[in-house]
Backbone:
């Protein structure tokens, strides 16, 4: 999944999993109190969820054929180690403060990230369930907690990866949590609520099987981009959607805008915690450029 936001001016980007304070919530998301070893992996939070959703909604399972995912590359192995370290740190803090809402939703973040490197469907489900339980505790304490609802939806998406047709029910729950988060703070996680809803509507099957809707997807992906136009994930999500829908003109225009902001984004989203995101963004940017450069009407195999 990939998501986006609108563009209020910020001196520096919020840390991953944090957002600006919402007047309706008692949580301080941007207090700088990030988890030790935490990593910004926006490409996983906005993309892998929905890629997994495709498997689930197709009656497939990421581990169905081999019992385990493909062996990770060297870079992915490094990202996995960081995710595991962040998970252990968050778990230690949460175990010591089980009634602390801040510790709980941050543990939910760590659960989502770590679950993406699960080596079996069972392990992914166990980790996701821990994140779900932690975030449910948060929203029980404070129904207006943006991160509580947001990361509850994210961990539900991880759980959906372990299901087949059972994922359809989870999709409705995800939509509900992201919609609540959108109403509380649309700017959270670089426009995450709009971004996640846009990708959910883009990638889910349409009626009567599920909630897929091109018009809703376009609306939310565009809104995400308006919130944070210099956050590459948002532009890439929209461009990929436009290419999927055959909107070449829209994709060309949005890619041009992204290229103009690329250098600025490189200076803004810096550090080891953004390494995995840039690895993904660079690859996807080259992919959409290649698709756009292909002559209209020419398929990959060279046929008309």
Residues:
């Amino acid at each position: 999944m990939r998501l986006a936001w609108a563009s209020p001016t910020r001196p520096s980007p919020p840390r991953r999993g944090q957002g600006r304070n919402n007047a309706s919530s008692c949580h301080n998301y941007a207090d700088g109190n990030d988890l030790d070893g935490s990593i910004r992996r926006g490409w996983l939070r906005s993309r892998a969820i929905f890629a997994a959703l495709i498997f689930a909604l197709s009656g497939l399972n990421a581990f169905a054929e081999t019992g385990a995912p493909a062996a990770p590359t060297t870079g992915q192995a490094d990202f996995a180690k960081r995710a595991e370290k962040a998970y252990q740190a968050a778990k230690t803090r949460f175990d010591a403060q089980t009634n602390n809402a801040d510790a709980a939703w941050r543990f939910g973040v760590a659960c989502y990230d770590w679950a993406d490197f699960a080596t079996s469907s069972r392990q992914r489900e166990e980790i996701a369930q821990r994140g779900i339980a932690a975030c449910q505790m948060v929203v029980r304490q404070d129904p207006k907690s943006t991160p509580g609802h947001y990361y509850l939806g994210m961990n539900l998406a991880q759980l959906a990866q372990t299901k087949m047709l059972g994922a359809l029910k989870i999709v409705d729950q995800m939509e509900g949590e992201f919609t609540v988060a959108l109403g509380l703070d649309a700017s959270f996680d670089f426009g995450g609520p709009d971004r996640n809803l846009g990708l959910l509507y883009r990638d889910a099957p349409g009626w009567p099987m599920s909630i897929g809707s091109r018009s809703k997807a376009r609306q939310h992906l565009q809104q995400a981009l308006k919130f944070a136009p210099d956050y590459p994930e948002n532009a890439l999500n929209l461009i990929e959607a436009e290419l999927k829908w055959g909107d070449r003109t829209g994709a060309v225009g949005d890619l041009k805008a992204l290229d103009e902001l690329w250098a600025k984004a490189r200076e803004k989203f810096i550090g080891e915690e953004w390494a995995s995101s840039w690895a993904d963004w660079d690859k996807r940017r080259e992919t959409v450029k290649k698709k756009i450069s292909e002559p209209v009407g020419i398929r990959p195999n060279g046929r008309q």
